[in-house]
Amino acid sequence: MSAIALLLICFALGAGVAHLVRPPAGMVHGLNWWVLNVALPALVLDLIPRLEPRLQFWFLIASMWLVFAGGWLLFALLGRWFDWTQSRIGAMVLVCGLGSTSFIGYPVMLALRGKAGLSLAVVAGQLGTFPLMASFGIVVASLYSGRRPKPRLIMRRLFTFPSFIALLVSVISGLFGGWPEWLYSVLAQLGQTLTPLALFSVGLQFRFHIGSGQWRAMGWGLGWKLLFAPLLCWGLGVVVGVNELILDVGVLQASMAPMVSSAILANEYGLDSALANTLLGVGTVLSLLTVPLGNLWLLATS
Predict the structure, then answer these.
(1) Nearest to 290 by CA among 233, 232, 251, 237
(2) 258-271: per-residue pLDDT in tens?
(3) pTM of the predicted structure, to 2 decimals
(4) Alpha helices in the chain (DSSP H)
(5) Burial of 296: CB neighbours in 10 Å, binned 0-12, 13-18, 19+
């Protein structure tokens, strides 16, 4: 309970500072830089070498792809039905097809399922969500903004991202027995900074403004991201007999709030940025309620 309270307090502090005080210029950028380039790679380097590979890890990755591919199909069909612009469809695919499995997912998973759950969440995030964002995320952003995808840009984003490099290094380290204990201790302490700083940063960026023409799109988008997509992943896992903890982590990671980076990508490519930011803000707040409720449901059904 105290771990969930920490998440809510850090988020509320960030939102409060953004609306009541004038934070220093570049504060969000600085916090995000630390989380992405120091805390997140340290967490990966700490957890992955200790993790024993299992065949059922495929489910953690497949769940992230199912959310993205299913969202793409759903929003393309809805776009024709409701006569949405290409810009709106592209924004919804990005923001409601990619979850915040790192910024919000790791702290929430640590609070709900401990270090064992967090280790599995890292697999889902680093091998599932991030490669999706760096590859098909850019493809979607390009197609729906009328541009041509650039393979060189995709490869550069993928192989220069610090936590992805940390993942490759971690796998090699694990093959050779891992790190010395003193280094694990240092990495763990650096990784612990992710939770408060990531949620504080998300709070700083929180905006709650729903335009009159956004309600229908928001309902479909967040309904898919926070409810229907996780249920679809749960059904897949139950049918194929996935281990309980792996099943639960895959489903919970599938139910995380929209990814902050996907909204940034939508803005960068000139998609429906107003809707993207609304989905991000409302989805973040709702997920801090729906994910713990989903966790209770999973515990009750196991």
Answers:
(1) 251
(2) 987 888 788 888 89
(3) 0.87
(4) 2-20, 27-34, 40-47, 57-82, 86-97, 105-124, 130-132, 138-144, 151-160, 162-175, 181-191, 194-204, 215-223, 229-240, 244-254, 260-268, 273-301
(5) exposed
